[in-house]
């Protein structure tokens, strides 16, 4: 879960969030790993629903599986709207409101809109996600940050990346969002805050993928 490669977009390290559509190539390996981990968690979650939840929850979960497959295949329109008699995430939200499945659908549909370039709808849907799972919740917050970057609303983006860092509080997601936070600070010429974000990666997450080349980022902002 886009964060996925099908999830969140990523700031380009050479041109820190200067261009719309630049959140594409950075940290791809980290995101693939995180996406796989989140999808496993979601699979476990739906097994739990079928075993212990009420009939409405079970029906909602059963109805979602085709939309989830479209989402994983990056067929965003079919994931959102449905196809060939199978409901999309919009219908799940409409017909099964107040279920855990509908809540998770907000995450899926938000990431779909993010990848489609509809940043307003991405923010709206990701903001409606209310899950407690730290990985999904952190990626929802990070996805909102990505959408704000694409809208060039860098102060809002920085706020949501900070929230994602705090929500994740782990070696997988926190350094990823700290790096994005640093790049946003660079885009607003706040070199001091960018340096603090990068140094936090170096000092607190030294084994993370992001830490492997973080000295180059620290050198760049401190040289300026």
From TrEMBL:
Pfam families: TPR_16, TPR_6
TM annotation in the entry: 31-49
Keyword Ribonucleoprotein recorded: no
Domain of life according to the entry: Bacteria
Alphabetical UniProt keywords: Membrane, TPR repeat, Transmembrane, Transmembrane helix
Alphabetized InterPro entries for the sequence: TPR-like_helical_dom_sf, TPR_rpt
Protein name: Tetratricopeptide repeat protein
Organism this protein belongs to: Mucilaginibacter defluvii
């Amino acid at each position: 879960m886009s964060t996925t490669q099908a999830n969140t977009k990523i700031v380009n390290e050479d041109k820190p969030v200067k261009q719309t559509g630049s959140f594409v190539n950075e940290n791809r390996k980290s995101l693939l790993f995180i996406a796989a981990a989140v999808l496993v968690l979601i699979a476990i979650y739906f097994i739990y629903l079928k075993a212990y939840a009420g009939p409405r929850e079970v029906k909602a979960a059963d109805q979602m599986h085709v939309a989830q497959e479209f989402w994983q295949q990056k067929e965003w329109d079919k994931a959102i709207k449905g196809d060939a008699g199978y409901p999309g995430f919009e219908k799940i939200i409409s017909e099964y409101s107040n279920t855990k499945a509908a809540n998770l659908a907000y995450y899926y549909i938000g990431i779909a809109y993010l990848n489609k370039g509809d940043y307003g709808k991405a923010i709206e849907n990701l903001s409606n996600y209310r899950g407690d799972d730290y990985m999904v919740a952190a990626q929802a917050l990070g996805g909102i940050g990505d959408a704000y970057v694409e809208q060039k609303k860098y102060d809002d983006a920085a706020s949501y990346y900070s929230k994602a860092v705090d929500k994740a509080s782990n070696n997988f997601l926190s350094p990823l969002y700290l790096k994005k936070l640093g790049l946003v600070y660079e885009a607003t010429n706040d070199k001091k805050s960018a340096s603090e974000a990068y140094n936090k990666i170096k000092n607190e997450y030294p084994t993370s993928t992001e830490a492997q080349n973080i000295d180059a980022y620290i050198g760049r902002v401190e040289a300026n």
